[in-house]
Design goal:
mainly alpha, 5 helices
Length: 110
Amino acid sequence: MAGRKKKIDFEESSGNVFADLGLPHPEQELLKANLTLQIYRLIKARDLTQAQAGEILGVKQPHVSALMRSRSGNFSVGRLIEFLTALGQDVEISVKPTRKRHGEISIALK
């Protein structure tokens, strides 16, 4: 039966892969992933070695290596924000009421 296409089943994403995978605290994990991505981009844009980045961030090179491989699990959101400020970034947090039962966490990167 040449030319016949096989139907592929799929599910539409919620926009948060961590929620789609059923992981605990998906909003926090997505926030950490976005902050880590921004740290990665800043280190690459400044052409820093991992050792140089570690000096700026106040951590050892293996921790920078983990960040560069998108492994932010060892760092809290607060620590990731500290890394961003150490890299010369302003971080703005906005809190506002929600109409939903529970609020959401979001991030806007510029």
